Every structure is written in C-alpha cells, then in structure tokens.
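$ ./design --mode recover --in tokens.txt
reading tokens...
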C-alpha cells in the first residue's frame, strides 16, 4: 500500500482530495503548514483536524513560518520595491508545498504528497517524462501557478481533483459532512486577505512609501502619486489624478519613483520577453516553437511562437497583441492541454 501526505488547508478541495485518495486505497495522512500566524491559521488547523478525524487519518502540523517569510513574503516585498508585480503563490508552491512539505513527508515515510489543485499529472510512455495537464473542469484550471515544479516534484505528487468538477467536489464534501463543504473561495493572497497590498507592504517594511511623480509618455510631469509600489501595469482606478480622460499605468521606474500614465492603446504588446524559464513537460526547444501562452491566472491562452534566446530566456511573439504584460508576473506556455513550462515576464 502506497502512503501519501495530503497538504490540508482545511478547505474543501484538500479535504476531498484526502477523502478520494483514501477511497482509492492509499494510506493517507494530513499535513498542515503553519505559514503566517496573523491571518486565520488557527482556524485552518482546526478545520483540517476536523476533516482528518472524520476520515480516521493522522494529522500533522508543521511550523514553516520562517521559511515562508524568507522565501515568499520577503521576496514579495523585494520585488515590489523593484517595480515588479510578483505572484507569491507560485513561489510558495515551489519552495513550501512541493519543497519543504515534500521533504517532511519523505521523512515520515510517505511515498507521495497530494494537493487539492485542479490539475492532472501523467507519465508519458514514450519520453518517460511526467506531464502536467489542465483539468477536466477548465474553469478551475490551476496549472498557471504550478509551472515552476520539477520532474522530481511531479513524480512524487498526486492531484486527485483533476478529473472532476468543483460541483462534484462540493457534493463529496457534503456526503462526508466536512466543515468546509459550503465555504466561500478566496481569490486573495493568504497573507493579504483584504487584497490591500500597499497597506501590507508598508506594515511589513515598517515605513511609508515615498511619494513621486506621475509622468506622461513624453516625460512631462502630470501629477503626484503615493509611491510606485502602490500601482500595477494596466491599472486605471485609484490613481488619484484627473486628466480629462481615462489614463492607465503604462510603466514604472523604481529608481526615479516615477509612474508613467498613458492611453489604453499603449498597454498592448506583441512581443513579451521572459526569463528564469522552467520547461516541465519537454526538453528546452533549440529553435522557435509554436504554442499558446497566457500572462495572467484568469486569462485565456493565445497563440504565439516561442523564440529561445538561451536555456533560461526567450521571447513570446503573439499573433494577437496582449494587454498589459507585467514585469514579475508569469507567462505559462501550453501545447494543447499540456503545460510546456513558463517564465517570469521581464
């Protein structure tokens, strides 16, 4: 009998993942990471314990607050100070859920870890590589936040929700009487549950942001802003300046603390440079490769050609101009439903 540690947040997805694996005959234990004490962690632990009791499985709690702070929160803060817009969930998956948690699962003798992600993992019989696929329920596709995983991590991971719908997951949760069966889903970062990133960053760094100049695309000063960290590319609302027509954040310069405003047409780009590329499902291409890619979690992927520049950098050339490619965000590449890999937008 294979053993698996399910990463349990107390939410409906991870709870049902554990239940399904037990039904399939695995020896299942639950593992909950204490990542950030300030926001609801005690409730998450309590809910996860409740689920494990119903399933009759062991439950472990691991204190990973310091690693989470260094690998995720500090990196999040540093990237914002450099004018970038990071996605901390991607870093958390790489370093914590599929990194640190996998290590402690191995120490406890588990063959696999499992998560409640809506994604699928299969082993290709020809290449022998593990391939990450989009799920059956495309509305819940979470492959965008998993592109940094390695072959080793994929080989040790189970994702039992990849072939079922969210509605089916809730029905299973109800049948077990899980406390999370009717819980609302959060779209916010776990350590910024109210979505106010600038407030969080000021509190975390212990100092207010420095005000700076709004400039237009010609370099002319047109107003004053609250600090470049408070804005992201493509933003229109909350700029605090009236210029007679809708204006959008086109770019930021952290060195001069200037934020460039312009018309929406200035946001569209055909070519997107990416770095820190990780190819999951195939070898790194030696020449240009037709594929699709998406630049945001909630976006659709569009046709493009990937032009490799080195083993870690390349350019995506899109057929259709992309709105507001944002430095620090991820570009994820697909061939059909398979995740080819991804990179960080420059």
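writing sequence...
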């Amino acid at each position: 009998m294979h053993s698996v540690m399910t990463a349990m947040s107390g939410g409906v997805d991870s709870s049902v993942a554990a239940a399904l694996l037990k039904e399939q005959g695995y020896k299942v234990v639950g593992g909950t990471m204490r990542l950030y004490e300030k926001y609801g962690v005690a409730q998450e632990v309590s809910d996860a314990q409740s689920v494990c009791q119903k399933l009759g499985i062991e439950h472990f709690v691991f204190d990973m607050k310091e690693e989470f702070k260094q690998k995720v929160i500090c990196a999040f803060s540093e990237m914002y100070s450099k004018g970038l817009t990071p996605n901390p969930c991607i870093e958390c998956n790489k370093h914590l859920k599929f990194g640190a948690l996998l290590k402690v699962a191995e120490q406890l003798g588990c063959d696999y870890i499992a998560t409640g992600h809506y994604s699928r993992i299969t082993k290709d019989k020809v290449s022998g590589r593990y391939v990450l696929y989009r799920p059956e329920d495309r509305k819940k596709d979470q492959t965008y936040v998993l592109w940094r995983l390695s072959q080793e991590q994929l080989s040790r991971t189970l994702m039992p929700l990849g072939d079922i719908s969210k509605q089916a997951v809730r029905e299973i949760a109800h049948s077990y009487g899980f406390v999370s069966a009717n819980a609302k889903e959060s779209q916010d970062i776990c350590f910024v549950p109210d979505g106010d990133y600038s407030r969080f960053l000021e509190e975390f760094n212990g100092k207010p942001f420095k005000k700076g100049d709004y400039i237009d695309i010609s370099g002319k000063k047109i107003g004053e802003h609250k600090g470049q960290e408070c804005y992201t590319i493509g933003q229109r609302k909350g700029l605090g300046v009236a210029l007679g027509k809708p204006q959008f954040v086109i770019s930021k310069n952290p060195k001069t603390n200037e934020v460039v405003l312009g018309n929406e047409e200035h946001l569209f780009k055909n070519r997107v440079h990416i770095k820190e590329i990780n190819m999951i499902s195939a070898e790194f291409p030696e020449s240009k490769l037709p594929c699709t890619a998406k630049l945001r979690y909630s976006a659709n992927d569009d046709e493009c050609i990937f032009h490799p520049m080195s083993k870690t950098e390349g350019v995506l050339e899109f057929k259709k101009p992309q709105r507001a490619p944002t430095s620090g965000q991820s570009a994820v590449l697909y061939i059909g439903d398979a995740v080819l890999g991804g990179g960080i937008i420059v």
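exit 0
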